[in-house]
Amino acid sequence: MNENQDAAVDVVVIGGGAAGLSGAVTLARSRRSVVVVDAGEPRNAPAAGVHALLGREGIAPAELLERGRAELEGYGGTILRGEVVRAAADADGFAVTLADGRAMRARRLLVTTGLVDELPAVPGLRERWGRDVLHCPYCHGWEVRDRAIGILATTPTSVHQALLFRQLSDDVVYFAAGVGMPEAEDAEKLQARGIRIIEGEITGLHIVDDRLSAVRLSDGAVIARDALAVGPRMVARSAVFDDLGLQPTTHPMGEFIAVDATGRTAVAGVWAAGNVSDLSAQVGMAAAQGTFAAAQLNADLVAEDVQIAVTRHRERGKMEAWSASRTSP
């Protein structure tokens, strides 16, 4: 495919992470023409490894994507580096425009743009994100087992987060300032599990030899911690949906694009998968969702192809009957 010219394909996949590449491979293996547009901003880029992914435990995020891209290209799929700035529906499908002016047409869209983690405004927090500032016990918990863990409360669900990390360490502290002291029932749960509740606000991090060693509170107190778990506000990268007339759905944890059980959005011809539609999906789940949505999307294309073929078949039959009547004695 010539990147500098408009091109028509069966499917444009917007987003080149686990969901997008898995979906694209599924489509390419069904002999669909597919283009993946990848902005190169994977959510898990700061992490050292991908976890809970069977057969690829601990693989570096960049290596996983490199393998996925190679698999797609091996089946004839195309990957374009760039950012989609507009996707608009019309009578013939969808017009997709990239930031550098490249454009293409597609019969269907699979949107797998992921999400952005919005963190509390604590100095140094972003720089440690994915290292010793964490959010998911299933993604990073094993790596901080038996360490001194702090929970920076950001939502009422932070209590649940603290109880999950308590499974991994006997030394867990709950910093409540972000949302206020927990309700009596939740406070009792924390206390019963030996999780100390601290009211002071975290104002900074202490880093020694490129490792978190403690957090500093607003009253000047310093609490030794090896890891800090934070519940970010997770916001789907949904700007591409604006021109399609699809608005994100608000959730206590952030914003996402609603889909049905097949991954279909409210816009005809548009599917979504991965973190853009499921805020809690890990890499394995995102990949599975991409594969499943692609299969449903392909089935939709098959139905359309069949209908087109039936219509043409009937038209040929009418023409042949008309031609036969003209030549009959």
How would you summarize the topology of this molecule?
Blueprint: E1 8-14, H1 18-29, E2 34-38, H2 61-74, E3 78-81, E4 84-90, E5 93-98, E6 103-111, E7 115-118, H3 125-128, E8 133-134, H4 137-140, E9 149-152, H5 158-166, E10 172-175, H6 184-192, E11 196-198, E12 202-208, E13 211-217, E14 222-224, E15 227-230, E16 233-236, E17 249-251, E18 254-256, E19 270-272, H7 283-327
Parallel strand pairs: 1-2, 1-6, 2-3, 6-19, 8-15, 9-10, 9-15, 10-11, 16-18
Antiparallel strand pairs: 4-5, 5-6, 7-16, 12-13, 13-14, 17-18
Description:
With 329 residues, this protein is α/β, with parallel strands linked by helices. The protein is 29% helix and 27% strand. Strands 1, 2, 3, 4, 5, 6 and 19 form a seven-stranded mixed beta sheet that branches. The protein has a five-stranded parallel beta sheet with strand order 8-15-9-10-11. It has a four-stranded mixed beta sheet with strand order 7-16-18-17, with no helix packed on it. It starts with 7 loop residues before the first strand and ends with a helix.
